[in-house]
Each structure stands twice: as C-alpha cells, then as structure tokens.
Design goal:
With 437 residues, the chain is an alpha/beta fold. The chain is 37% helix and 12% strand. The structure holds pyridoxal-5'-phosphate (PLP).
Length: 437
C-alpha cells in the first residue's frame, strides 16, 4: 500500500502522473485517441461540456485525452496547477506573448535566447504593436527594473540560455517582476523539469519546447505552457482575464470571466479557448503519445547526458585549438555560483566552443565528424554538433549575433546517449583531419 499523504517522487510522477488505466479500458500504455471529434452523448451533456461545467473532449483541435494526460504529467513534474500542450515550442511562446500583450505593450527580455524566439521578437511582435526591451546588464536584476515601463507586460527569460548555457539570477528577476505586478515567464527547455523547477524560484509561467529533451528522441515537435496559479490576473493590468464573457456563462446564463470560470487554470484555459481554438496549433494525439513516452525516461537520459557533457568539456579544454568553452562546467565559467545555487544536478548537456582559424577549417572539421549528427535540434538521443552562427542563429545580423554573444567561431554541441569515449574519439579524429590543412 502506498502512503497517500506522501508526495510522489519525481521519477514516479514522470511515469505515472495524470494516468489511471481504469479510465482507459485498463490499457497500460497511454492510448492514442485517433479521432477528430467526440460524441456529446446527450443534448444536456453537450451543454455542460460547452459551458465548461463538465470536463471532457469535444474536438481534437482544442484537446484530446492523450494530450490531456501529457498536460497533467508535465504540470505535476513542475508542481504546477495546469498546463496546455501545443504543436510546437514556438506556439507555446507566441501564444503566451500574444495573450499577455493583448491591446499592446512591451516585453522585457534578453538578446541571448533561442534563435527562433529572437526572430519572432524582431519579425512578428513589432508589427502587432508589441515592442521588446532588453536590460542593459542581463545579469543584474536592478538593470531589469530600470527597463520596466508602465506598458511592460511580462519578463521573458530562459533558465539555461541557448546556445551558450548562460545562467541568470532568476529569484532576483522574479522579485523585480512581482514588484511591478508583471509575470516572469521562463523557457525551461534546456534544463527540463528534472534539472530545474522555475516555480520554486518565482516564475509564474513555464514554457517548454517538448521537441527537445522532454521527448528526447528527435522524432516530433511539441510545446507546453505550465501555470501555477500564484500570479494575480485580477489586478486590472490584464483586463482580458477579468472581462465577463457570454461564452463562459454558467448553466443559468450568467456571464463569467476566466478568473471565475477556470480557477487554477486561468492562463492556460484562456490560451485554449482563445488561441488554440482560433489560431489552431493543436498537438496531435500521436505526437502527445511520443512526448509522454519520452518523459518516462527523462531523468535517466538527462543524468547520463549531463555526465557525458562534463567528459566532453574536460576533453575539449585540453585541446589547444579550442579557444574557449561556454558552459557552467567549463573551468573559467562565470556561472559557478548560480549553477551551485539553482542546478545541483547539473546545468544540462548543451554547450558551445570556439574552434577554427578559418571558416574552411571549421567546415572541414564538421564534415569530418562521423558520429555526431549535423542538424538543428538539441536534447536528442543522438549527439549533435552545429555551427550556430550560420544555422540556428543564422537569421540574425552581425550586430544581433554580437548582442546574443555568438562569435563567428561558435560550434554548439548537444550531447546524446552514445558512449562518451566514442564521441571524444570522433572529435579527436576530426580535429586531426582539419589540422592537416
Ligand atoms: C527549440 C526551442 C524552442 C522552439 O521550440 P520548437 O518546438 O522548435 O518550436 C524554444 N525555446 C528553446 C530554448 C528551444 O531550444
């Protein structure tokens, strides 16, 4: 018998949370509900479903039982109250920003982020009337405070930045956000819930590209938004959550706001009904199943990748042709203290290093690798090496790359699940071939 008063551990939650086989014909694995729509049963039940009086599936664009289990599982891994799964990490980011900046506003963020996020800041949000600001010193919470205006609607950061694995004073930044009545949104993709829980340090919303380590096998695209319901959406600054709406009416016909209709899930319910419903980035049941399957081995995979990353970093630091290594594990990293404070289990398995006197030499090095894959993804079971300035961050101009701290000699590694000795041998061979120039 399990003691019901004891909270289940992380590893138990990652294989079991959100699923009861007795609710699904006693299927042991989470079933893939491959249907577009669901019978409403009776007129009365249909009414209850559409008025949020009863939770249930209606149409796969706005949710499916398979995705609902994924949502519950990720919410429980982070200790959140609700989550929503979407068709990509970019959908999770853009819907969050769209919802928070309705009616205009400003986003306070960092120039050191995933390339696609920066690109959306540059190409999508300004044309919707949403401006992006950056603090002068990304490592100083006081600098964030100085950049907040009455129009600032959120602060957006990554817990471990892409691609250079920079760390930030998350508690200090959260404190500044809350002092000004705005939420802190943390993209926790690189860390995963296994290495870091942003809610423990003041984040209000957590975002994942589930494409990466949550899935862990490089075979689908997905995103998740998690909320913990601590933020007060009723302060007057976000009228979208307070507005009484006919669609949220009670059975007796009284209009309600999202705050009234969806306690514990205000943010994600509005994302579902307003953005997923109308803009349509729905996660298919099959893809939700793949992410769930990946999460079952999250801890084991990430722990091994963290350990292998340390070995690769130690090896690279012995190579005279490697000019620098950026990761909190690197010996001269400025992030030792933040790593010890926030990441006792490690700071992930993605890092960058500088190599190559010339572009030709770098190209030759990459082409000489046999084991490392050369493609734009991270958190895969396979190790990946990529030349970030020309690919993942290639849409940024020289000045923007400099702002994101991406020098032209940057190579990014995402460590997979191979034997680290084989990965080191592959790098060693490629270094020798490239040196023969
Ligand atoms: C990949 C990535 C995203 C975008 O996610 P997709 O699933 O590719 O849309 C967002 N943030 C980070 C940190 C990422 O690495």
């Amino acid at each position: 018998m399990t003691d019901k008063t004891r909270a289940l551990g992380f590893d138990t939650r990652k294989v079991r949370a959100g699923y009861r086989s007795e609710d699904h014909n006693y299927a042991v694995a989470v079933p893939i509900y491959q249907t577009a729509s669901y019978d409403l049963g009776s007129v009365e039940r249909g009414r209850r479903l559409f008025q949020l009086e009863e939770v249930g599936s209606i149409y796969t664009r706005i949710g499916s039982p398979t995705a609902a289990i994924l949502e519950e599982r990720v919410a429980q891994l982070d200790g959140g109250t609700a989550a929503i799964a979407l068709a990509s990490g970019m959908a999770a980011i853009s819907y969050t920003l769209l919802q928070l900046t309705e009616g205009g506003g400003r986003v306070l963020s960092l120039p050191n982020l995933y390339g696609g996020t920066i690109d959306s800041f540059l190409r999508v949000f300004p044309s919707l009337g949403v401006k992006i600001d950056y603090p002068e010193d990304i490592h100083d919470p006081i600098s964030y405070e100085a950049a907040i205006t009455p129009d600032t609607k959120l602060i957006f950061i990554e817990s471990i930045s892409n691609p250079n694995a920079e760390l930030f004073d998350i508690e200090g930044i959260a404190e500044v956000a809350h002092k000004h009545g705005i939420p802190l949104v943390v993209d926790n993709t690189f860390a995963t819930p296994y290495l870091f829980n942003p809610f423990d340090y003041g984040a209000d919303l957590v975002i994942y590209s589930a494409t990466k380590a949550l899935n862990g096998h490089g075979n689908t695209i997905a995103g998740v938004i998690v909320e913990n319901s601590k933020f007060n959406w009723g302060s007057g600054k976000y009228p979208q959550f307070e507005e009484k709406l006919h669609v949220l009416r009670t059975v007796s016909g009284e209009a309600r706001s999202f705050i009234e209709a969806a306690p514990g899930a205000v943010f994600t319910t509005r994302i579902r009904l307003n953005y997923l419903n109308h803009l349509g980035a729905a996660l298919s049941p099959f893809d939700a199943f793949l992410i769930l399957q990946g999460i079952e081995t999250l801890s084991e995979r990430v722990a091994k990748q963290v350990s292998s990353a340390k070995k690769l970093i130690t090896y690279l630091e012995t190579k005279k042709e490697v000019l620098w290594v950026k990761h909190p594990e690197a010996k001269d990293s400025p992030y030792k203290e933040l790593a010890a404070r926030y990441f006792p289990k490690g700071t992930g398995s993605i890092f960058t290093f500088g190599y190559g006197k010339t572009k030709e030499q770098r190209d030759q090095f990459i082409d000489a690798l046999e084991l490392f894959s050369f493609h734009a993804n991270v958190g895969d079971a396979r190790s990946i090496l990529i030349n970030s300035p020309e690919t993942t961050h290639g849409e940024l101009n020289e000045k923007q790359q400099a702002l994101a701290d991406i020098s032209t000699d940057t190579l990014r590694i995402s460590v997979g699940l191979e034997d680290p000795e084989d990965l080191i041998a592959d790098l060693e061979r490629a270094f020798q071939i490239a040196a023969e120039e």
